[in-house]
Design a protein that fits this description.
There is one protein chain. By secondary structure, this protein is mostly beta strands. It folds into 2 domains: 92 residues, Cell-division inhibitor MinC, N-terminal domain (Transcription Regulator spoIIAA, 2-Layer Sandwich); 109 residues, Pectate Lyase C-like (3 Solenoid), CATH 2.160.20.70. It is built from 3 helices and 16 strands. The strands form 2 sheets. Strands 1-2-3-4-5-7-9-11-13-14 form a 10-stranded mixed sheet. Strands 6-8-10-12-15-16 form a 6-stranded mixed sheet, with no helix packed on it. Helix 1 packs parallel to helix 3. The radius of gyration is 18 Å and the shape is elongated. This is Probable septum site-determining protein MinC.
């Protein structure tokens, strides 16, 4: 079995590296083993950086990987884009994690704007009261509702699948995704709309015109 999980110490801090993989289950299994092996090194609540090779390919798995790390007692300060060769870590991009907003119901509610370079990752539903700027990204296991304008990336249904929806007041996003369906040329909407999956593709309707089923 190939080692998929590694820890890299850098000047900026500790990076948890997930190598490019084929099986999410194998990643989660190895993740639990490696963190357990290093339990004497970590204290609950310690922050690390997370790098997943080929991150665009594995973006749908991000909520489950992040949840597994958090369940182990660790927190993620940044998500890094890049790769590692030997002891050298090459970082081509980074996003700061948005931590606040967890609720007892399991829905994450964030009452602020998400700015470029910020990522919000949650295994359930996400509500944002604010704008999602270009360069910001939301990755939700469930549905996403944004009470503001969206120019960033929205990924919903990464756990719940095609039943998830995306609802926003207005948007001109870089990309939206629901489950495995990606829409890159979204266009601009200046009124409330809902995105959902119909006939194996992402459909966007004005709120007043939405007809599910």
């Amino acid at each position: 079995m190939r080692d998929l999980i590694d820890f890299k110490m850098t000047k900026e801090g500790l990076i948890l590296l997930v190598r490019d993989y084929e099986s999410l289950e194998e990643v989660l299994e190895q993740l639990g083993v490696r963190i357990s092996q290093m339990s004497g090194f970590f204290a609950k609540g310690d922050k690390i950086m997370l790098m997943i090779e080929n991150s665009e390919k594995h973006a749908p798995d991000m909520p489950k990987i992040v949840a597994a790390i958090r369940n182990s007692g660790l927190e993620i300060s940044q998500i890094l884009v890049g790769s590692a060769v030997g002891e050298n870590v090459n970082v081509s991009g980074r996003m700061k994690m948005v931590e606040e907003g967890d609720t007892k119901s399991g829905t994450k509610v964030v009452k602020k704007n998400l700015r470029s370079g910020q990522a919000l990752v949650h295994p359930g539903d996400v509500i944002v009261v604010g704008n999602v700027h270009a360069g910001a990204e939301i990755m939700a296991g469930g549905s996403i509702a944004v009470f503001g304008h969206v120019k960033g990336i929205l990924r919903a249904g990464l756990n719940e699948g095609e039943q998830a929806i995306i609802a926003v007041l207005s948007m001109q996003p870089t990309l939206i995704q629901i489950a495995g369906h990606i829409l890159r040329e979204v266009g601009s909407y200046d009124e409330p709309v809902v995105a959902y999956v119909k006939d194996n593709r992402v459909v966007i309707d004005k709120v007043k015109d939405v007809k599910f089923g």
